User: What shape does this take?
Amino acid sequence: MSRRDGILRELGLAPIWRLRDRPAEVPVAPVTESIAQPVADDRAAAIAAMGWDELKAAVAGCRACGLCQARKQAVLGVGDVEADWLFVGEGPGAEEDERGEPFVGQAGKLLDAMLAAIDLKRGENVYIGNSVKCRPPKNRTPEPEETATCWPFLERQIELIKPKLIVALGRPAAQTLLQSEVKISASRGRLFDYRGIPVVVTYHPAYLLRNLPDKARAWEDLCFMRRTMQGFRGDQP
Ligand code: URA
Assistant: This one.
């Protein structure tokens, strides 16, 4: 088997479509499902009606899943709340947990460089958020229940920002947004849809720090995103 085939196989997952609102994915108090589901629905409905100030306060005080126990602070996101570009990562790491801003560690430095490569800058027509707002212990990948519990926050952020393009950084973010099993290597260079907003996927910067040869592919992805955005705006190439 070629190296490429080996990597594809290791990452490979066929698309499995799941309903976003499937009741079992929303963790709630450990009581019967018939009582618990309305609690989750009420929470999601309340979040869906929030403005930025309420959202900020709700995220800061959120205790809806176990991730709140070890966090120093929840990290809502950063940037232009009317941005055309929304970048979504996985979840805060140690430095983000400390500083309250997404992507401020090593991966964040690379993300800033990736943005600069296509003439973008953190905070200028760019918003950066995460699938989960609290640091998973030891930077592990968030569990599906944690991502599902945090989803109404990201859902509301997207509704408020109304980006023209969403960039999913890495597989957890892609799976959160697309609600399907996603293989980054097979999904790059394609346009997906989130409620009418185009979504592209690329490698997570932390992955790129460990897999330098894939930086060339990430560059291709950046060019694809830029072309896509230029196409929406009717810019000259
Ligand atoms: N990795 C992420 O996915 N998000 C951050 O905010 C930092 C590192």
About this structure: Residues 1-34 have pLDDT under 50 and may be disordered. The domain at 3-12+28-233 is CATH 3.40.470.10 (Uracil-DNA Glycosylase, subunit E). The longest helix spans residues 215-233.
